[in-house]
Specification:
Layout: E1 12-16, H1 21-33, E2 37-42, H2 60-73, H3 80-105, E3 109-114, H4 120-127, E4 135-138, H5 153-171, E5 181-187, H6 188-192, H7 198-217, E6 222-228, H8 238-246, H9 254-264, E7 274-277, E8 294-299, E9 313-314, E10 317-318, H10 322-336, E11 341-350, E12 364-374, E13 378-388, E14 394-405, E15 449-456, E16 459-465, H11 471-474, H12 484-490, H13 492-502, E17 505-516, E18 525-535, E19 539-547, E20 553-565, H14 567-571
Parallel strand pairs: 1-2, 1-4, 2-3, 4-5, 5-6, 6-7
Antiparallel strand pairs: 8-12, 9-10, 11-14, 11-17, 12-13, 13-14, 15-16, 16-18, 17-20, 18-19, 19-20
Helix pairs in contact: 1-3, 1-9, 2-3, 5-7, 10-12
């Protein structure tokens, strides 16, 4: 255990936004764990002496009545605004006093400084008398939740500066070499995004990236950006709790969340610069209107941003798997229409593949055309991916029609399941891949077929397992509702079949229909039953049913057309 990142009795923490609310509760828990010194910063004024009329009065109606009486006694006319201003000042001061007293009761030292962290000159002046600061907890922040088209410049500045400028200003008050702890209160809205919080998400994501950068430059400092979810505090009303519950979002209990902060400050976590604590922010289901629109999403795809592509190379060049192209389309649609998921797509065509070599376009365009919107039921869209070369000529790469449903039907059972081994093909696991001869060309991201259970001229059944790859490896094609790597892996059964019976390989050409009832589990055995419907010298047509050992269907591709390739074509 290093002493550099150990919180000690001599540690001095500056805590922005730390005199009230959740940040104050975190400071209290830290003090209980290790009494040291806390400098709490906030914009509120701390009343040295509470007005006589307010003393021993704590109920809101009674206190507001006394405020009105005091204003009248001074010859002023009470207004709702003036009464609320005085009331909030008194209540705020009481909360600050309570925080200070609670911290001091642990044996720690605590003082409060009234300052706006966005005012660098005032901040530097007031912190200059503190002495050596060893830690910063940056919890200050503002909200101005509105849809982006309704946000003003002032809204953005209010939210952005408290987080970003506040951090910059705090760091100017501390010598980098003496800073041992830096805790940034970020949010899951920065990590996942959230409706009405574009500015808040931007500011918090900058905190996240700042944490990684500071840790890189000052490795001796324990840096962590905590992406908090919603806390079970006064800001979360019963109505909001109900809305969170409907969206499957867990609320963080105060005692649990504060203890998790203390845990993150343990030296064993000193190399973790970012952590998410809380549930993903699942957007509420949107209400559909009747207007049909067309959307275009532009994407620059680069080999270095998608490491998995090195595991899908043909003739020496990485090629985008058709399943990944389809997943780009699916993920975009599900993000555009919160509350709706892909149930099926039809007429999926590989028109011109995307190869990551000198022919790669600078950008690719996904066009989504709304065909039909049936509110509370489903959305039908047509999608295509295309690009333009330097001469301005358009190349179409993939196209499909998608059906997104609010409710996915229950998973059916596969009636023709047969998991009895016939021991005809004895190859297992990694032997199927990159093993010379006619073995599959796929690398680890798209492996592996574990074994062939049985094979006939009409059908092949494979036992499969996909070992999950990291988000960094998945790059721009992350696994969400549909897993492109498992979908690709499932089709390896037909390659094995064509090689066994015809000494040929095959690549996807089009799919008449794909439907998904449930995600195929990662890191667990699943099965693919491939029923061959037709075979010619240039093509093969098959149905792929992906299921568990009881026959429960996860997903299925019906009428999948494959293009037959000779081994010489694939290797050259």
């Amino acid at each position: 255990m290093t002493t550099q990142t150990q919180v000690r009795p001599s540690s001095v923490f500056v805590v922005s936004g730390g005199a009230k609310g959740i940040t104050a509760q975190c400071a209290i828990k830290m003090a209980q764990h290790q009494p040291c010194k806390f400098i709490l910063l906030g914009r509120s004024e701390l009343l040295e002496t509470e007005p006589a009329f307010a003393q021993d009065c704590f109920e809101e109606p009674a206190l507001k009545k006394r405020i009105m009486e005091n204003l009248l006694a001074q010859g002023e006319k009470p207004t709702p605004m003036s009464v609320s201003k005085i009331y909030n000042q008194i209540v705020s001061s009481r909360e600050i006093q309570q925080t200070l007293a609670t911290i001091q009761a642990t044996g720690a030292q605590a003082e409060y400084i009234s300052v706006d962290v966005t005012n660098v000159a005032d901040l530097q002046q007031k912190l200059a008398t503190v002495g050596a600061i060893t830690g910063i907890v940056h919890g200050a922040g503002n909200l101005a939740d509105k849809l982006i088209e309704k946000k003003t410049d002032q809204d953005f500045e209010k939210v952005y500066t408290a987080k970003v400028q506040g951090l910059e200003n705090l760091l100017t008050c501390v010598k980098p070499e003496q800073l041992e702890h830096l805790v940034l209160f970020s949010s899951v809205s920065g990590f996942y995004g959230n409706i009405g919080q574009a500015d808040y998400a931007i500011a918090n994501e900058i905190l996240n990236k700042s944490a990684h950068l500071i840790k890189q430059n000052y490795p001796q400092c324990h840096v962590v950006a905590i992406n908090w979810g919603a806390w079970d505090s006064g800001m979360v009303s019963p109505e909001l709790k109900k809305a969170f519950a409907e969206r499957g979002i867990d609320i963080i209990p105060v005692d649990v969340g504060t203890q998790m902060l203390v845990n993150e400050l343990h030296p064993s976590h000193s190399n973790t610069a970012q952590v998410v604590i809380g549930s993903p922010l699942v957007p509420p289901t949107i209400e559909l209107d009747s207007q049909l629109r067309t959307h275009r999403i532009r994407r620059q795809m680069k080999l270095e941003a998608n490491p998995f592509l090195h595991d899908h190379a043909l003739a020496g060049s990485p090629v985008l798997p058709a399943t990944c192209a389809m997943t780009w389309i699916i993920n975009c649609c599900e993000e555009m229409y919160p509350g709706y998921r892909l149930f099926n797509y039809t007429d999926f065509k590989v028109l011109k593949g995307i190869t990551f070599n000198h022919t790669l376009a600078k950008e690719h365009i996904l066009e989504i055309e709304e065909v039909e919107k049936i509110n509370s039921e489903k959305i039908i869209v047509k999608a295509k991916i295309f690009s333009k070369n330097q001469a301005g000529k358009t190349h179409y790469h993939f196209s499909a029609q998608l059906n997104l449903h609010k409710e996915i039907p229950p998973a059916p059972n596969y009636a023709a399941i047969n998991l009895n081994p016939d021991n005809i093909i004895t190859t297992t696991g990694k032997e199927f891949y990159q093993n010379g001869g006619a073995t599959l060309f796929h690398g680890p991201s798209f492996q592996e077929v574990q074994r062939v259970l049985n094979i006939t001229p009409e059908k092949i059944t494979t036992e499969c397992l996909w070992t999950e790859i990291s988000p960094q490896q998945q790059g721009q094609f992350p696994v969400k509702w549909v897993n492109p790597y498992i979908t690709d892996l499932s089709m390896h059964a037909l390659w094995i079949w064509t090689q066994h019976f015809h000494q040929e390989g095959c690549l996807p050409g089009k799919v008449e229909k794909f439907e998904q009832f449930a995600p195929t589990p990662h890191n667990e055995i699943f099965y693919v039953s491939c029923e061959v419907k037709a075979k010619t010298s240039s093509s093969a047509i098959a149905d792929f049913i992906i299921h568990d050992n009881k026959g429960k269907i996860y997903s299925q591709m019906l009428g999948a057309h494959a293009i037959i390739w000779s081994m010489k074509q694939l290797r050259s």
